[in-house]
Design goal:
Helix 11 links the parallel strand 15 and strand 16. The chain folds into two domains: about 200 residues, Quinone Oxidoreductase, Chain A, domain 1; about 130 residues, NAD(P)-binding Rossmann-like Domain (Rossmann fold, 3-Layer(aba) Sandwich), CATH 3.40.50.720. With about 350 residues, it is α/β, with parallel strands linked by helices. It is globular, with a radius of gyration of 20 Å. Helix 4 packs across helix 5, helix 4 packs across helix 10 and helix 7 runs parallel beside helix 8. Helices cover about 25% and strands about 25% of the residues. Strands 3, 5, 6, 7, 8, 15 and 16 form a seven-stranded mixed sheet that branches. A six-stranded parallel sheet has the order 11-10-9-12-13-14, with helices on both faces. Bound molecules: zinc ion (2 copies).
């Protein structure tokens, strides 16, 4: 089969290759025919050597597909089932973090497309215990963006506890920022503000409008800090969702969140150190939640919200391309000309 492979450490080193079809080697595994795989900002970070990864491996961790073969001990799944899969391959199950219910943060984890072969290919093989059923009324394309949606739900609702009636600010209008916006909307936040760069993210700010942001601040036009303070009567927002990973922007979030408010940090910087106004955070009594990966419960919530029509994420899919156009997808995302790109192997 053809696969997009990151074949070595360093910048670039990605190519479309002919590789052997994967085979089930353990009794608890399933073989999945990939129907759609979504391009992720992390793939760009891996391309640029600014993210942990274990080459050589096939890229791709946001995918959906259909089961075409099951291992001997697999009981709950059968050939023909439509599925999405969590990515936490290798989590040990016995360490403190796994035992306390958060195997997605286990140090031993080696995710699809990062630590083991992923889904930029016709087939992917992995453990059945990571699967979730994809309802008939959810397309494979939308299925491919359940993974980032689950990350946002884990971060915003489960970790930073965004609640109905609260004010929220989303910093960064990329795919994660826009999914965060949709989740804030469905959770009943009373005021949803999005901050982003107009010149670089024209399409993205327009999508934020479509998704129902109450206020969009274009930082090319306006300093967001006085504006946020103005619309929140001098307080700042209850919950600030930082998805930009931008070292110049992150220090400013301390000024836009209210005293005793929460900062939900999802966006990664790609390896840069950031200086933050630490004492300001202390004197305001802020909570800074660093968020990573996704919980089992968040996957179930994401699928249910999508299936019930409460989260309409198909709006975020701006491009559908064949696997062979993977480099075009890299270019589009790098130049911020796309939101979610789905590749069809
Ligand atoms: Zn991702
Ligand atoms: Zn563990």
């Amino acid at each position: 089969m053809k696969a997009v492979v990151k074949y070595g450490k360093g910048k670039g080193m990605v190519e479309l290759r002919e590789v052997p079809d994967p085979k089930i080697t353990k009794d608890d595994e399933v073989l999945i025919e990939v129907k759609a795989v979504s391009f992720c900002g992390s793939d760009l970070h891996i391309y640029h050597d600014a993210h942990p990864y274990w080459p050589p491996m096939i890229l791709g961790h946001e995918f959906s597909g259909v089961i075409v073969e099951v291992g001997k001990s697999v009981k709950d799944w059968k050939v023909g089932d439509r599925v999405v899969s969590e990515t936490r391959i290798g989590s040990c199950g016995v360490c403190y973090v796994c035992q306390s219910g958060f195997p997605q943060v286990c140090e031993q984890k080696r995710p699809y497309g990062i630590g083991v072969n992923g889904a930029y290919a016709k087939y992917v093989v992995g453990p059945a215990r990571l699967l979730h059923s994809l309802p008939e009324n959810v397309t494979y394309e939308v299925g491919a963006i359940v993974e980032p949606t689950a990350i946002c739900i884990t971060s915003i609702l489960e970790r930073s506890n965004l609640q109905a009636g609260e004010t929220t600010l989303i910093v960064g209008p990329g795919p994660i920022g826009l999914i965060s916006l949709a989740i804030a909307k469905v959770s009943g936040a009373s005021l949803i503000i999005l901050v982003g760069r107009g010149k670089k993210g024209g399409l993205r700010l327009q999508k934020a409008q479509e998704l129902g942001a109450d206020l969009i601040i274009d930082t090319d036009q306006e300093d967001p800090v006085p504006k946020i303070l103005h619309v929140t009567k001098g307080l700042g927002v209850d919950c600030l969702i930082e998805t930009s990973g931008n070292p110049e922007v992150i220090p400013k979030v301390f000024e836009m969140v209210r005293r005793l408010g929460r900062i939900c940090a999802i966006g990664i910087t790609g390896g840069q150190d950031i200086s933050i106004p630490y004492d300001r955070g202390i004197f305001k009594g802020l909570r800074l939640d660093f968020c990573f990966s996704s919980s089992w419960t968040a996957w179930e919530k994401a699928i249910t919200l999508i299936s019930k029509g409460l989260l309409t994420l198909e709006k975020l899919i701006t491009h559908r391309l064949p696997l062979e156009a993977w480099d075009e997808a890299f270019r589009l995302l790098e130049n911020r000309q796309a939101i979610k790109i789905v590749l069809i192997p």
